[in-house]
């Protein structure tokens, strides 16, 4: 009998419900003895982190996108053999690319992405490691947005919900339609993102 597909299900007034979760990590440890459904906090105020304790029912969830969010727009950075595409509107600002391949991704230079400063394979690996799907690439005329991942949901302590692999996102606003990379995305857990339900790095804002 095949395993049931993992789903993350929520509405504009609910926590994140992970259904049939198979590989969920929190603070570098696997969450064992998983129930068929677990509820995760998305307001950032639960006293039972990472789980929802119903705190949002007192104040209500603020789940609307802000007019101040970064524009959902792709920008191209073309090199000799590969073009990297970047969408600031999807970026979770986890700096995976900056730390992983600093010669190529350097916010202190213009342009901040210079794909010819590393091998094509290294650039592709950096794009693959982008957790939010804000990086994609084109090579030899083929536009590549998705990669093969083992299914994994990582609850980052004081950070987002990082999702990779065959996990279905289901909500009442069809948020999955916003993504070109359907099998890698980051969801806001602090309630501060301007691009809910997706993370925009708002958890780094100390205000």
Automatic annotation (TrEMBL):
GO terms for cellular component: cytoplasm. Keywords: 2Fe-2S, Iron, Iron-sulfur, Metal-binding. GO terms for molecular function: 2 iron, 2 sulfur cluster binding; metal ion binding. Signal peptide: none annotated. Pfam families: Fer4_19 (PF06902), zf-CDGSH (PF09360). Residues 24-62, 168-207 form the Iron-binding zinc finger CDGSH type domain. Gene3D superfamilies: CDGSH iron-sulfur domain, mitoNEET-type. PANTHER family: CDGSH IRON SULFUR DOMAIN PROTEIN HOMOLOG, CDGSH IRON-SULFUR DOMAIN-CONTAINING PROTEIN 3, MITOCHONDRIAL. This is Putative Fe-S cluster protein YjdI. It comes from Serpentinicella alkaliphila. The lineage of its organism: Bacteria, Bacillati, Bacillota, Clostridia, Peptostreptococcales.
């Amino acid at each position: 009998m095949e395993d049931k597909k993992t789903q993350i299900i929520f509405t504009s007034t609910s926590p994140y419900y992970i259904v049939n979760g198979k590989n969920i990590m929190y603070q570098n440890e696997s969450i064992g003895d998983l129930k068929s459904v677990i509820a995760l906090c998305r307001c950032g105020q639960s006293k039972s982190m990472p789980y929802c304790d119903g705190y949002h029912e007192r104040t209500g969830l603020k789940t609307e996108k802000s007019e101040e969010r970064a524009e959902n727009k792709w920008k191209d950075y073309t090199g000799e053999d590969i073009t990297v595409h970047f969408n600031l509107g999807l970026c979770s600002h986890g700096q995976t690319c900056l730390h992983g391949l600093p010669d190529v991704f350097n916010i202190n230079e213009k342009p901040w992405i210079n794909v010819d400063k590393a091998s094509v394979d290294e650039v592709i690996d950096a794009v693959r490691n982008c957790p939010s799907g804000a990086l994609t690439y084109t090579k030899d005329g083929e536009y590549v947005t998705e990669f093969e991942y083992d299914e994994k949901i990582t609850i980052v302590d004081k950070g987002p919900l990082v999702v990779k692999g065959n996990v279905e996102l289901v909500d009442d606003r069809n948020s999955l339609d916003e993504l070109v990379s359907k099998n890698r995305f980051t969801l806001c857990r602090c309630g501060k993102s301007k691009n809910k339900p997706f993370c925009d790095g708002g958890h780094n804002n100390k205000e």
